[in-house]
Amino acid sequence: MNLVLNILWFVLGGFIAGTLWMVAGLLLLVTVVGAPWAFAAFRIGRFSYAPFGRQAIPRMRDDLGTGCLGLGLNVIWLVLGGWYLSIQHILIGAGLCLTVIGIPFGLQHLKLAIISLAPVGTEIVRT
Question: How many domains does the chain have?
Fold first, then answer.
């Protein structure tokens, strides 16, 4: 079932969403300062291509994306645009949830809204 939903998602907008996240990651990677956020954008982009059967969880290992540094990077991300991306996913998700057929896709947008708020220090795992 997840495969069918992921294919529908990909065809009906997931390709565009994931590709835009990848382009944003490349633009962030051009600047040395944007590298931590670039990797987070790549992670969200891969998640945007096929979100069914996956979820975002906090990383449990000690590395640069966790701890105080990760918190600081997430605060900067949230202030500079994470809130805007999250609101966008919430509005699209709410609109999709108005129809019975759109509910699964709306729920995936809500998952993307959560990861858009604080992507540094998260990882995507299969459920």
Answer: 1
3-state secondary structure 14-76: HHHHHHHHHHHHHHHHHCCCCHHHHHHHHHHHHHHHCCCCEEEEECCCCCCCCHHHHHHHHHH
Considering the entire predicted model, what is its pTM?
0.83
**What pLDDT does 3 receive?**
94
Instruction: Quote the Cα angle for 17-39-29, to 5°.
Output: 95
- For residue 106, give both structure tokens: 């709306």
Dihedral of the alpha carbons of 24, 28, 29, 33, in degrees to the nearest 10: -170
The domain in which residue 52 lies consists of: 2-126
Residues 97, 110: Cα–Cα separation, whole Å: 10
